[in-house]
Each structure stands twice: as structure tokens, then as C-alpha cells.
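Training component of the fellowship. As part of building independent skills, the fellow (R.M.) carried out the full modelling exercise for a liganded target. The chosen ligand was pyridoxine-5'-phosphate. The inputs are recorded below so that the supervisory panel can assess the work.
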Amino acid sequence: MLKLGVNIDHVATVREARYRGRGFGEPDPVAAARICEAAGAHGITAHLREDRRHMQDRDIWKLRETVKTRLNLEMANVPEIITIALKLKPDIVCIVPERRTEVTTEGGLEVAGAESSLTETRQKMNDAGIEVSLFIAPDEKQIEASARVGSQFVELHTGQFAEEFHRWVEATDEPAREDARPTDLPELQRLISGAKQAHALGLKVNAGHGLNYENLPTLFAAPHLVELNIGHSIVSRAVLVGLESAVKDMLRLMKDYRG
Ligand code: PXP
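Fellow's submitted model of the complex:
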């Protein structure tokens, strides 16, 4: 069964927009995590950025106490956050690139250029009982390098796919009907071959970034997916219909995944 990890950074983003630096305020991402889990989410994802723009340290410690499913800590491969992760002991860390000027994580990790430091971090995490995922573009070289690093998972970056899907919808003005899914999108084809390659190399395959209720059924052409990490579209829908419904709607869609 395809699993859903809900990224709740966006809940903290709303709080920080009003209460930045004050150590309190709503909405509370920990309360959001509880609702997501009660609605059936299989995991909670939070990114402790070096600039602390959304999640704060107190959030992730409370999340560690509260989350009953799996806590996935997204993090840059930097000493400060590595130290925190090793103490926090999330179930899994997903190593991502971080640029201070980006709105959200934009590109995939350059694994091929940082194999030795990523292998060292991967080993430290595994020794502490924490699984490791690397957030990468569906690129042959990055997938091969991820296998050499020895990570348990890769998370394939679906941001480009989401952009292409959006351009296709705009250009065709077509509701995304079952028979009108754009399965020939180049980025979807890259995700399909990337998922096959990663699976063949013994990596478990997650995917995430930019996934929403419209583009998800098209992504289902990609095989071997274990978990999707989805944040913005769920939190956005939650503003209109509530978080519980938003999570349940996503889980309902995900039931159609055939692997
Ligand atoms: N996966 C990773 C590694 C991310 O950095 C993000 C964005 O924080 C997501 C998944 C979720 O992306 P979105 O918020 O667009 O659903």
C-alpha cells in the first residue's frame, strides 16, 4: 500500500508569519500532526532548516514525543542539524539541499559530488538506528551515487513533473480525466525510469514535492513507490475543508496506486 507522509512545515509557516521569534502562537504544527495521524497518515514530515524559517527546535522535540507513526526529519547535511538529528532520533531523515533564498526546497541533492560526506552522515544515522533517504532528481547519476552512499531510500523530486503537469493542464484546458492523462510527459518518463533504476539497485523509492490532488493520478504511472511526502496541497486544502478531510481525500486518491 502506498503510504502518505504529511509535511507540516506549512502549518508552522502560517504561525511564523504572525509570531516570528516569539516562541508561541497558532496554528500549532504538533496539533496538526495529531490530526493527520488520526485521519490515517502513515508519517509526519518536518524540515528543521538552518534558518528556522518555519519549524522551530521546540516543534521537532514535541513532535518526537507526540508522533506515533513515523517521524521523518528533513535536513541539510550540516554539522548543527546532524547533531540535533542524532539526539532527536527521528525514524528517518531525508537529506535535502538548502539554499537560503529559496521559497522551498528547489533542486535535488547533488549526491554524486558529495559521496564521502553523505556516506559518513548516512553511517552515523544508521548507527543511531535512523534510516536515511536522499532527496534527488530522477537522474541516473544521482541514483547510482545514492546506492553507493548506502542510503535505504531515495525520495524522487517530483517538482519538475508538477510544473510540466501544470503546463499541460493550461495548454489543453482539459480536466485531468482518466483517459486524458498526459503519460508522455518527459519528466514523468524520467520518474518512471528513475524509480525502476533505484528499485533495481535495492533502494526503496519515495517521491515528493509539488504533488496535489490533480497531478497525483498521473504520477501513478511510476512503479515501486513506497511513500509520498505531501505538504502544500494538503495544508492548502485544509484551510478550506479542514485538515482531517484534506488528509482523508488524499488517502482516498492514493488507494488507486497499483505499484
Ligand atoms: N519532500 C521534500 C524533500 C521537500 O523538501 C518538500 C517540501 O518541503 C516536500 C516533499 C513537500 O512538498 P510540497 O509541500 O510541495 O508538497
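The panel noted the following from the submitted structure. The CA atoms of residues 193 and 205 lie 12 Å apart. The pocket of pyridoxine-5'-phosphate is lined by residues 7, 9, 47, 74, 94, 96, 104-105, 135, 155, 208-211, 229-233 (CB under 6 Å).
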